[in-house]
Amino acid sequence: MGQRSRGPCRMPLQPRCLAILLPMALGLLAGCRREAPPGWRQHDLADPGLPRRSEAELSRCAGRLRLPAEEARPAHPSNFGERQPRDVLGRRVPHTPMLVVLHESVLSAPATLVLFRTAHPKDEDQVSYHVLVDRSGRRLRFVPDGQRAFGAGMSAFGDATVRIRPTSVGSINNVALHLSLETPADGRGDGDAHSGYTPRQYEAAAAQVLLWQGRFGIPLSRVTTHAAVDRSHSRYDPRSFRWDRFRAAYDKAAASCGWHAYANGLASW
């Protein structure tokens, strides 16, 4: 029998062989990194092309609304994160605020503050909003707008969602601003409804939404609720929320600032 040929590379590998094989191996690995698993694609929200206001314009609008300054109540760093610009394959993903999600706290405002300031090393325990409006209309700031609050874990806005890792569930947190209303005392449980929110809460929530719209160019059709975006089928908030009362407060705020472009005539969720 003839001797089986081993080709140009014999064992042990020579530098010449390594020079041939190493680039091939690296090329294969690079190809694997670029290839997304089946079914893993990003669903983006289109830019609505609305105006983004300057800091001076935002300040003037807040003054016309007679809106008291936010009160800083920073959440523990384990309860929020960075808006991720790329997924693990290096593909760009949406990472700037593009929609507003309304919540209710269920807990009292002081209890919510304690929860958010508690370290939570486990992913499933981490939670936060950007802003909470208490019963008197005060705005409590937990997370800066430029960072990612953990307000909606498994979530999507229509088909739009962001997955950073192939094993992760889709979430809108990378593009969402989370605004919560403090729940009344008769709603601190799992009931279907409660007595609702105060006029000052609706006014402050509408003002906050308008300022976010002015800063980031978000249309009113992208103001939604936790119940609408949740894909775990376990979230129903904000219970007893009255869109008609919110819209009346919103229209008044928009008229005060002369900002009518964001109410784009499309249905809100």
Helix content: 25-40%
Which class do the helix and strand fractions yield?
alpha/beta
Secondary-structure element order, N to C: HHEEEHEEEEHEHH
Tally of helical segments: 6
Give the strand tally: 8
CATH arch. level architecture = 3-Layer(aba) Sandwich
What is the arithmetic mean of pLDDT?
Answer: 86
- The shape is globular
Distance between the termini: 77 Å
Q: How many strands, what sense, and barrel or not for the largest sheet? A: 6 strands, mixed
User: What low-confidence regions span 5 or more consecutive residues with pLDDT below 50?
Assistant: 1-34
CA gyration radius, whole angstroms: 24 Å
Q: How is this structure best summarized?
A:
With 269 residues, this protein is an alpha/beta fold.
Keywords:
269 residues; alpha/beta; six-stranded mixed beta sheet; two-stranded antiparallel sheet; 8 strands; 28% helix; disordered N terminus
Characterize the structure shown.
The protein has a single domain (40-257), classed as 3-Layer(aba) Sandwich (Lysozyme-like). Helix content is 28%, strand content 11%. The chain has helices spanning 15-34, 55-64, 109-116, 199-216, 226-229, 243-257; strands at 71-72, 80-82, 99-104, 131-133, 139-141, 147-149, 176-181, 223-225. Strand 4 and strand 5 form a beta hairpin. Helix 2 (55-64) packs antiparallel against helix 4 (199-216) and helix 4 packs across helix 6 (243-257). Mean pLDDT is 86; it is low at 1-34.
